[in-house]
Amino acid sequence: MRSYHANLGAGIGGLMVREHEAPQPGTSEVMLRVRATSLSFRELMILRGWYPLPIKPDVVPVSDGAGEVVEVGEGVTRATVGDRVTASIFPRWIDGGFAAEYAPQLGGSLDGMLTEYAILDEDALVHIPDHLSFEEAACLPCAAVTAWNALTGGRGLASGETVLTLGSGGVSLFALLFAKTFGARVIATAGSDEKAERLLALGADAAINYRSTPAWSERVRALTGGRGADHVIEVAGTLEQSAKSTAFEGEIAFVGLLGRDAGLPTIDPGVLWTSALKVRAIVVGSRAQFAAMNRAIEVNGLRPVIDRVFPFDDAVAAYRYYEDAQPFGKVVIAHG
Predict the structure, then answer these.
(1) From the CB of residue 145, how many other CB atoms can be counted at a distance below 10 Å?
(2) Of 100, 150, 196, 198, which is most buried with the most CB atoms under 10 A?
(3) Domain check: are 105 and 190 in the same one?
């Protein structure tokens, strides 16, 4: 079998593919024939050297993957040979809030999914909705679960509320799809008119080009009659504008930053005080949230937005495309 390997801060050029013997599952483990993986921004963070959680040396990278169970170890009860599954990024985080003991994560302190065969603890497994392909299912573990947690894990989302999504990355696109399923109104920002039109086609009620409208929080206020958005999916570190866009007692789901030194402005405490808003940092989500999300995906027939699919042999090219092309949707690697 073949697998890719990476090291913290080694860059895309440091990705290496190796051939070695296939591992065997131990007690409570399964062997997965990985059929597809997808890239998330965390993968670039690792290669750039500023991912906040531990990364083991020579790790098999990529947290997001999907495949079929080909062998089960002793005592496995949650899967059988032939099952189509994905895996929760934090295998020990089953339900409830996040805690330090749940920190081991696939593609970080644990080997990940950019491999032909992976050994997974059965506790990590989440079954794939029947209507999704392996390539589509591989898009779910990081971006989709993060978006689901952002909308449902805090104050909750009610029909008729307004959600503001930022940009056209994986988390924002999943948040758009989920919010519309909940009956919410969605305002989306985009870096071009072309992407704004595509967001509207996906169901956004309004789209703002943040390049031609740099004070986009004012436009959000105008589109909501001065009230602001009930939920903001903050993926870029633009907290000042996000706070100005948020309704009284609204919530900002703070997903991440675009760089280690994002140049964040100081937030005026008066904005927080007068809005009584809550900023909630998001750490992907638990297996229980993953399973709940999959039920909603299956019932509503939702499908992820995929920008481009690369073959396993071209995984390095997939990384470079993801880094350079500003894709609209997920970049997927098909393992065959």
Answers:
(1) 30
(2) 150
(3) no
Question: Would 289 be classed as within a structural domain?
Answer: no
Place of tokens 């999504």: 165
Q: CA nearest 170: which of 133, 142, 197?
A: 142
At residue 34, φ and ψ (nearest 5 deg) are: -75, 125
Phi, psi angle pair for 9, to nearest 5° = 80, 5
Rounded Cα gap, residues 133 and 116, in angstroms: 17
Same domain, 150 and 273: yes
Tell me, yes or no, whether 209 lies in a domain.
Answer: yes
Long-range own/partner contacts, residues 189-194 (CB < 8 A, 24 or more apart): 189/164, 189/165, 189/216, 191/167, 191/326
Interval 258-281: pLDDT, tens: 555 545 556 777 777 777 889 999
Q: What tokens appear for 255 in the block?
A: 């997903």
CATH code of the domain in which 113 resides? 3.90.180.10
| Structural domains counted in the chain | 2
Using DSSP bridges, classify how beta strands 246-254 and 162-166 pair: parallel, antiparallel or unpaired.
unpaired
Give me the domain span that covers residue 28.
2-139+304-334
pLDDT above 80 (res 335): yes
- The closest of 4, 307, 331 to 138, measured between CA atoms, is 331
Q: How far apart are CA 259 and CA 210, in angstroms?
A: 18
Q: Are residues 13 and 95 in the same domain?
A: yes
Q: What is the pLDDT of residue 85?
A: 98
Which of 88, 86, 113, 91 shows the shortest CA–CA distance to 102?
A: 91
- Domain check: are 8 and 135 in the same one? yes
Q: Are residues 82 and 162 in the same domain?
A: no
pLDDT at 38: 98
pLDDT at 258: 59
For strands 229-234 and 246-254, give the pairing.
Answer: parallel
Q: Is the pLDDT of residue 301 over 90?
A: yes
Closest CA to 265 of 236, 240, 232: 240
Cβ atoms 8, 51 nearer than 8 A:
yes
pLDDT in tens, 66-112: 999 999 999 999 999 999 999 999 999 999 999 999 999 999 999 99
Rg (CA), the chain: 20
